[in-house]
Design brief:
The complex is a heterodimer of chains A (293) and B (262). With 293 residues, chain A is of the alpha/beta class. Chain A is built from 10 helices and 10 strands. Chain A has 2 domains: 205 residues, P-loop containing nucleotide triphosphate hydrolases (Rossmann fold); 67 residues, no CATH class. Chain A has a 6-stranded mixed beta sheet with strand order 6-7-8-3-9-10, sandwiched between helices. In chain A, a hairpin with a 7-residue loop joins strand 9 and strand 10. The longest helix of chain A has 21 residues. Chain A is globular. The termini of chain A are far apart. Chain B has 12 helices and no strands. Chain B is elongated, with a radius of gyration of 23 Å. The chains are: A alpha/beta (293), B mainly alpha (262). Chains A and B meet through strand 6 of A and helix 8 and helix 9 of B.
Chain lengths: 293, 262
């Protein structure tokens, strides 16, 4: 991991110019490999990953548990250094934290000692905004996620879905151009997930940021995204398939699931995913699979 | 149980103790009342003595001295504990080198230090403060060290993604986390500051609650000992109550035991 801030070297500036002239990818991964440990204990989480996300594109990454989906987000965000390959964000190679990225984590990431309002406002305060103006903006963003009445609550006084919405406001208030979301709605119950998906889509519809959305929930991936990327089981997981989702927008995630083309997509992607999921669990479920067949 | 019921029962316990004490010290129930009075005094005599303490005003000086020592020990011990705890948590290599020495110093029973501190700092308040500091320091030090070490990695990663630099991480993440751990050991550290002060006074001094009890003991004045202990206990409960008030203010963000939003 690298702690220093983003370095805008000459290579980065040149890179940005060429990229803007080219396809204009918001995020580009080139031949990424990430490994942990050394020697005999070396564990290669992902290898040979190439992926480009256009500005304004909503990409979902699905794959079996432990396939290194989150690892890729950490590389893009600058929290983790790849052992090989280059990650390029808006034309410049990632060095340090990627400032143009917002990150929504699966686990609770709010500071428990700050109120909902302070948690959101701090994102602007650290960028040099005055406290009063940061708080005024934070109230606006809390209103957007429907939490105006909960501004003075501490995280432990909020439900799981409310905490996620505070985290969403905290991420969006900095106006990042790229959103990295790591199974953000994973810990929530099924109904809340649907509502959160709709909220996310309605917010995204307003300014169409580039989104990388990691999930293990295939339905969620299809309902939300423009493109679903399927990863193989780890170790050394890589991208094995991509599916374009041409469902009309704006979408209602609950209704879109009833669409006939939704089922076709579900079937097609599950075909790719199925073998990998089985592989991830090894022979644990072999008996059941045999009985079913 | 309702609050008032609870209070009634709590008072009932005290009444029972006083009645039994009074009975055995007055009538020959379990032995010669004269002997029992010599060893245990009587509740009425103790109450009268406590009243005299306050009526004549002699107690205020002793309370004030003990309170001063307690506060000084708490403040100095906490500041040192916070500083060293923070520093070592951020310097894992130095922490590893010093680890056995920290453990050794903490394992030492502090009472053996009292004579040395008297030699170094004299019989005034500072030898008692020093004793309290050695107790408070380690509690705060371990709490702060833990607090900095055990910041959730997700909170840390999120704070960095929000763009916090090292200084801002310290202010918004490490510092509140360390303080919350320190505050959760506030009862223990304030309690030990008081223990240090009283034990120090007991070992040798010219004022304070420990001195008062020690003086009574050396003249076989059992009533004085019990009266001193009664004042000391009330004093401890008073300090503990203040700590609870402070804690509620400082840790408002923490879930109370059993409280949980769903």
């Amino acid at each position: 991991m690298v702690l220093e801030g983003q370095v805008e070297g000459p290579a980065g500036i040149i890179g940005m110019q060429t990229k803007n002239g080219g396809e204009g990818a918001a995020v580009e991964l080139r031949d990424i490999e990430v490994s942990f440990g050394e020697g005999a204990l070396r564990f290669v989480a992902v290898s040979n990953v190439d992926l480009a996300v256009r500005a304004g594109e909503f990409v979902a990454i699905v794959g079996p548990t432990g396939c290194g989906k989150s690892t890729l987000l950490n590389v893009i965000g600058g929290l983790l250094k790849p052992s090989a390959g280059v990650a390029v964000v808006e034309g410049s190679p990632v060095a340090g934290i990627s400032k143009s990225c917002g990150y929504l984590f699966q686990a609770d990431a709010l500071m428990p000692w700050k109120t909902a309002l302070a948690n959101v406002a701090v994102a602007l305060e650290i960028a040099g905004e005055t406290k009063a103006r940061a708080e005024a903006r934070a109230r606006e963003f809390l209103a957007r996620v429907g939490l105006s009445r909960f501004a003075d609550r501490y995280p432990h006084q909020l439900s799981g879905g409310q905490k996620k919405r505070v985290a969403l406001a905290q991420m969006l208030i900095r106006n990042p151009r790229i959103l990295l979301m790591d199974e953000p709605f994973g810990p929530l119950d099924a109904q809340t997930r649907v509502l959160m998906g709709d909220l996310l889509l309605s917010l995204w519809q307003q300014d169409r940021k580039a989104v990388l959305f990691v999930t293990h929930d295939l339905d969620e991936a299809i309902a939300l995204s423009d493109r679903v990327v399927v990863m193989s089981a780890g170790p050394q997981s890589r991208i094995i398939a991509e599916h374009r989702i041409d469902l009309p927008r704006p979408r209602q995630t609950a209704e879109i699931r009833l669409d006939t083309s939704f089922h076709a997509l579900q079937k097609a992607i599950w075909n790719d995913l199925r073998a990998e999921v089985m592989r991830a669990y090894g022979d644990e479920f072999a008996a059941i699979a045999g009985a079913g067949a | 149980m309702k609050r008032t019921h609870l209070l009634i029962w709590q008072i009932a316990v005290a009444v029972v103790i006083f009645v039994v004490w009074y009975a055995v010290a007055t009538w020959p129930i379990v032995g010669d009342p004269k002997k029992i009075q010599f060893f245990f005094s009587t509740p009425t005599a103790v109450i009268v003595r406590v009243y005299e303490f306050f009526a004549t005003g002699v107690i205020w000086k002793h309370l004030w001295i003990t309170l001063t020592e307690t506060i000084l020990a708490f403040v100095i011990g906490s500041l040192a504990g916070i500083a060293v705890g923070f520093w070592l948590a951020r310097q894992p290599r130095i922490a590893a080198i010093l680890d056995p020495y920290v453990k050794m110093a903490n394992a030492l029973p502090r009472v053996v230090l009292a004579p040395i501190f008297m030699l170094w700092f004299g019989l005034g308040i500072w030898s008692k403060v020093a004793l309290g500091v050695t107790l408070v320091f380690f509690i705060v030090f371990f709490a702060v060290y833990q607090g900095v070490k055990e910041v959730s990695p997700t909170i840390l990663a999120n704070a960095r993604m929000l763009g916090m630099n090292d200084r801002q991480l310290l202010r918004h993440v490490y510092w509140p986390s360390a303080l919350s751990w320190m505050f959760s050991s506030l009862h223990a550290s304030v309690g030990f500051a008081l223990v240090g002060a009283v034990v120090g006074e007991y070992m040798g001094s010219a004022a304070g609650l420990g001195y008062l009890i020690h003086e009574a003991e050396s003249t076989f004045d059992v009533t004085g000992v019990f009266a001193g202990m009664a004042v000391l206990s009330a004093f401890v409960i008073f300090i503990d109550w203040i700590v609870t008030l402070v804690e509620h203010r400082l840790l408002a963000w923490r879930p109370q035991a059993g409280e949980r939003a769903t």
